[in-house]
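Take a minute with the sequence and fold tokens given here and flag any structure token that looks odd. Thanks in advance.
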Amino acid sequence: MLYGPEAGMVGYDPKADGRNISSFEVAVAGSMSGLVTRVMVSPLDVIKIRFQLQIESLSRSDPGAKYHGILQAGRQILQEEGPTAFWKGHVPAQLLSIGYGAVQFLSFELLTELVHRATTYDARDFSVHFVCGGLSASAATLAVQPVDVLRTRFAAQGEPKVYKTLRDAVVTMYRTEGPLVFYKGLNPTLIAIFPYAGFQFSFYSALKHVHEWVLPTEGRKNENLKNLLCGSGAGVISKTLTYPLDLVKKRLQVGGFEQARATFGQVRSYRGLLDCAQQVLREEGSMGLFKGLSPSLLKAALSTGFVFFWEPGLRGPSAGGVRTEKHQAPQDFTLPSVWAPAPASVPASART
């Protein structure tokens, strides 16, 4: 991984010739960028989850709707629950960001290096980015799914709280619902995360190509701004394409948690992914699968963009941004000028 003219690039680079930083530094940078970003986007995350779980339409015309817009929801949450409500579930959310970022950045680095060493494929090819990005995100998802469920439940509960502390939540959930409760929503998560992460890597790479084609000189002068814009665009596109699965995941994660949702309006129970999707389509229409998309897109743009923005600077000071061992590419190995980074937090956000 390079630092300097090509800041923001993540993954094994066979042209680096000793300038790659270590895998440990990759993991640390990914985790720290996710941690900083999570603090900034947490209010949008809470609003998004509230929208996703609301059975009633997000409209002023529905008298039973508690929330119907981002600003209105923000004001109501602030009035009813106080400013700290925007950081409900922040501790498990930070654990989610740190764990997810570390596993995803590190596994993407290792997978792309494996592709270069063990195959004849171009390690920075669009399809390689898609597959390695999806696999690294899937591995990260399996590692942090329990804290994702905890984060969702904390963000979903109003006042008075059902879970007082993280320990209280873990003990209560385990005793009342069993160990599998921590993997509720895993199926739609895995189904969504592979294409979401793959699209993020691929669209980020494509957008950087476009940017460098349109503004070849300007891109080199403002590398962080380019990373921010291209990362945000990739996040928005990817989130839109996979959003219905994220909504289904959230609905499944709060299954068995109906008592905490009673003050928010109607509640539903679902038997699984297909049953949830069918009920949403039948009762809420096709747009019901896109509830909370607006705060989700805003969050995706900000979180993805800021991850790409913070991560190069966070890994730059480590060891001077260089790797001790060398990875010498074959003499005839030619690569394009763009390298797609791995976002540290996906709903992930997918995290999101």
